[in-house]
Write a structure and sequence with these properties.
Blueprint: E1 14-23, E2 26-27, H1 29-37, E3 44-45, E4 58-59, H2 72-91, E5 102-106, H3 114-122, H4 130-138, H5 143-148, H6 153-162, E6 169-171, H7 177-190, E7 196-203, H8 208-216, E8 246-254, H9 255-260, E9 267-276, H10 289-302, E10 311-313, H11 320-334, E11 343-344, H12 347-350, H13 357-371, E12 373-374, E13 397-398, E14 403-410, E15 414-421
Parallel strand pairs: 5-6, 5-7, 10-11, 10-14
Antiparallel strand pairs: 1-2, 1-8, 1-9, 3-4, 7-8, 9-15, 12-13, 14-15
Helix pairs in contact: 2-6, 3-4, 7-13, 10-11
Amino acid sequence: MTTDLRDAHGRPLVAITGMGLVTSLGQGKADNWARLTAGQSGIHRITRFPVEGLRTTIAGTVDDLFNEPFAAPELSEKLAMLAADEAVGQAGLGRKGDFPGQLFMAVPPVELEWPQKQVLASASNEAVSYDTLLAAAAAHTHRAYHAMFLFGTVADRIADHFGTKGSPISLSTACSSGATAIQMGVEAIRRGETEAALCIGTDGSVHAEALIRFSLLSALSTHNDPPEEASKPFSKNRDGFVMGEGGAALVLESYASARARGAEILGFVLGCGEKGDGFHRTRSSPDGRPAIVAMQEALADAGLEPDHIDYVNAHGTSTPENDKMEAMSCTAVFGPRMTTLPISSNKSMVGHTLTAAGAVEAVFSMLTIANGRIPPTINYREPDPNIPLDVVPNVARDARVRRVISNSFGFGGQNTCLVFGDAPV
């Protein structure tokens, strides 16, 4: 391993010293990795709330963490707490409740859900209506709900628990949020603002309203039976994404700091790239230009050429348009090699964890490097002739993987790509 503490651009190298993970596959990196590489799915029929009459009745929910009804922000906080506990524990950085770095946290947009609206509105003993809801809110008799549904509350509580320094940063950039949280941590370390960062992506927002809204956008798969076969990225018969829940955390440190304390180095965040576009609120730009630029910028930031990448962790949502756009964009970046460069989608097994996805897939990318095994894209039975990719179909593949690019492309034109490696460039 190099003794140089700075990258090719003269900036502090950013090391990863801790990781934590919770998805519908299980709790902890070990359980998730074992099931992911075995090609198992965490997608199942929803039991948390009634789904009769809904077009989509399945999701990759994380169940059994609460013994009583809960709201999405509470689950998002729980998932973040579990993932961060594992990551901070592995890093061994600081003391309990005294993490010597900043918090960058991707959390889903929050708003009152139907059950909470019913409770608030019925407090007036009148028929439930918008006016009674406003009246109940104005009475300030439900301060607990108010606190629960404030956007920054989850990050505030995580910061208090771990004792992070400075103001906690809450962010939401659609499906690229988890990757953006990592990027912000990397940039803070590079600027010398902190020696360490706790970067988290979390999302526990599978509820009836969310399912209906995504269904109205024709974005969700309606392949409800069997549930585990619904998410089929890059397949000809793909019909939409499957919602998922999860939390992932990474402890980032300057390489100099990690070496000085004798920390185990799990790998490095070598590069970050982002490109926004205002093409459409939900659709991807048909020419793929924003995704292309995001990947190119990530490679340039890492000081790498396309040929240096061994594996692409795809955004791979299983929607007809996104998969086609991503395949076209990757081909534009990696050229003819894209037909043999392995690319696979973790979402085929855990679903689309939305705000958490970029962080979840960052952990999976690092585990791919550490274990020399590429997770498969399951449910790949009908290849799309218009997407000639090596999607590592159905079965994991052993391979030496030193550098990975992980793609996160979100609604509204939010595109973030990260490059991970086992060693500095």
